[in-house]
Amino acid sequence: MRFGILILAAAFALSSCSSSKFKRYNGPQVTQILVDKSDRKMWLLHGSRSLAEFDFDLGFAPRGHKEFEGDGKTPEGVYFIDRRNPNSAYHLSIGISYPNDADRARAAEMGKSPGGDIFIHGGPTLLGDRNKADWTAGCISVTNKEMEQIYAMVQDGTPIYIKE
Q: Among 65, 78, 136, 159, whose CB has the most other CB atoms within 10 angstroms?
């Protein structure tokens, strides 16, 4: 009996200390995302009004448009948020619709795969990647706390404009 009470007390303490990574958002709809790779700034916009601004890390070869799988670059152009991963290895993630038809054609001309699985996601999980700039394979990385906010605010179908 005493052991059961201790277990119950420990479970209650843990549940009250932990906060969910799934946040609620009741503000204006995010109608577009603007990413400036050169300035390392991302804005969540409602029309032309900024709702939130974030700094971020990129892939290990951040300059230029993604051309093929494994090049470490982040795509540039107009894409859409097309999926969500609540169980991401990087806390939470939302998918970017790369590659499009032009991306596939460009990679095919080089005899390569365009790759895929480009996301906005939380921070690094591997100790060797922590405090290291541009550690992703081509994704856009923010802190876990910021990713919780983005995940709550951004819906599938939202256009994302990525520029150098």
A: 136
